[in-house]
Amino acid sequence: MAPELPPDILQLRPGLPSPPRTPLWHDNPDISYTLSTHIIDASPLRTFPQINSLDEVSLPAYVRMQTSNLDTKGRQKVAQEQVGLMLNWRREQEETRRSQRTPGYERRLWLCLNRYVKQDLDKAPRKTKGLTLIFAHALGVNKETWEPLIMRLVKSRAGRDVEEIWVWESVDTGDSALLNSGKLNQLPDWYDGAKDILHFLLHYMPSRITSDRLPVHLPRVSVAEFEERERLGFSERQIIAIGHSYGGNNCGRACYSYPQCFSALVLVDPGIVKLNDPTLRPTLRYMAQGSYARRDSWKSREEALALHEKSSFFGAWHPEALRMFIECGLYSPISSDSDSTVYLKTHPVLEALAYTNGVETSEDMYAKVPSLDQKVYIKWVMPDRKKGGGLAGPESSDRLVKLRPGNTSNVNIAGASHMIPLEKPDEVAREIADTIEIVASATSAKM
């Protein structure tokens, strides 16, 4: 039975952390999708407990690094030391968790989601289940960076069949991170990300799609509806989940647990790598150190944009994706005209910490891929082989995309590195549109 909403959640519901905004296509009359932002509680049981080491060690070390004018080499040294400590804490906590065999630790956290819904859905009767997409981001990337891709998708012939889109944001990222400020002193776990996606799908996704406005705090569905979704999936929806990197791992794991909820997966260079792959640990450690070493504030959004454009990493992004990162991934905590300083919503220390969990969860999900339900179509979208070919290299990616034979396809996006959706939104939108057509064709064949 679905648990009742705890009284403290009802009493302490926060408001939206960022002002409402119009979507990227707000002045395009040919795109009839409206945007709203919503809040739900996260899955209440987290894998790891609160730890004091973040507040006592890593965050103070980060502040000292930021204020001591260290050069690049000096920042990298601090990042290397701190990521090493994080890995040690995780090993210690994992050993404790396994010895105690605890099911989890209760924690009250919040999630933000963007909803894009087609207008005037109720004007004509619908003959098929409402096509719904859910997007899950890579580590450190706010939910709005999907918007350039979504804009291209809904302009396509297949994309116009999409009735509703939900873009999920993890507890330590973007607006969700602002809602959970002061409550993230725990080791993040990729298993929790999958649980949070399922928590939304099973408890909060509205039963039917309507163009009507929804409340900021989504209401839970009834116990009967929850139990039906657990057994049979959705009676009035077809769901395609699109996950990039960390988000791809989360979507795959959610589908493994509840395949009845999904019609297809689009996994974009997902964080899924085989056991003992020699490249995985150094790759994740490198990413964690890069996250920790980065700055978290700029004098203005204009300065932030100019510096990010010069970065070899961010400079490779599509300009519209980078704009969404700067506009919506940064915030100004002081409402003063005299101070234009902006800060990352996703703190670099928390982003680095999330990478330290990637080895076990990537390997574990790799072992589950062959058992993903054959009824769920899988599209693998991988980088250019000349640009890395995937998180663990092209040979590893070649093995991954063949792990579950049948009802699957794969593609390498020319010119793209790991950040495929942010670098090549047109190309990834086309692959999602292709997936929609395949799902629609399979549905028609069954009717």
TrEMBL record:
Keywords: Hydrolase. Residues 133-430 form the AB hydrolase-1 domain. This is Alpha/beta hydrolase family-domain-containing protein. It comes from the Eukaryota. The keyword Hydrolase applies. GO terms for molecular function: hydrolase activity. Pfam families: Abhydrolase_6 (PF12697). Residues 1-21 are annotated as: Disordered. It comes from Lentinula detonsa.
